[in-house]
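Problem 12. The chain below contains 255 residues. Write out its predicted structure in token notation.
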Amino acid sequence: MTNFPKTPSFRLEGKRALVTGASSGIGLACAVSLAEAGADVVLAARNLSKLQTVTGQFVQQGWKAEPLMLDISDIEGTQKILAEQPIMDIVVNSAGTARHSPAADTTLEDYDAVMDVNTRGAYFLAQTAAKRMIAEKRRGSIIFISSQMARVGGIDRAVYCGSKHALEGFQKAMAFDWGPYGIRVNSICPTFIRTPLTEGTFKDADKLSWIQEKIKLGRVGEVEDIMGATVFLASDAAAMITGTSILVDGGWTAG
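Solution.
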């Protein structure tokens, strides 16, 4: 009888996952996907009240979840809080911000606000998680929620694009450094996703038309479009994947 290969598991039972930016939007969808796959999920964000409400709803679904107030732009605070937590096997960094304006009008305040979260915060969150994994000899998966704008430019998005291009560099170099310890580092690069933060953009008929023209599949993204990629990269099904990105962009960057 032929010994057929066995598909690696997409299940995450026994894994502990941290998701930042988990109180709404893409971060919340990532947290749901991991919880559905069996992980114990720590939902992290700055708004504790909102996190507690969402966590209660997770528990009602029968999922394992707990809230954690965390501001990744506070590097020392984040390091201290995570040092007091049990080790994480999976880290999904979905915390991010944007302040769009023409490049000539970018203020120092706007630049720092975006870079403090999207690059500095993301970098040191990954470092903190990886150092703990290495110290405790634990394999793991670190996932940055990046953007299609990590591959292209965009009108009024110079700082945002720069911050996401930086994530791609982090992810590749970190994969080199931490691969020998069994730590995988990847990113997910979504197109425009329908969330409370993007509704204003989609209500602008001209902007919506431009977006739909660029997305080859002819529709904007939904948070559900991110969920499968998250579970995949977190699971053993992606055991040989590191230092790369999954573009969830409907073909935007194909041409």
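Discussion. The chain has one domain: 16-254. Students who got a different answer should revisit the alignment rule from Section 12.3.
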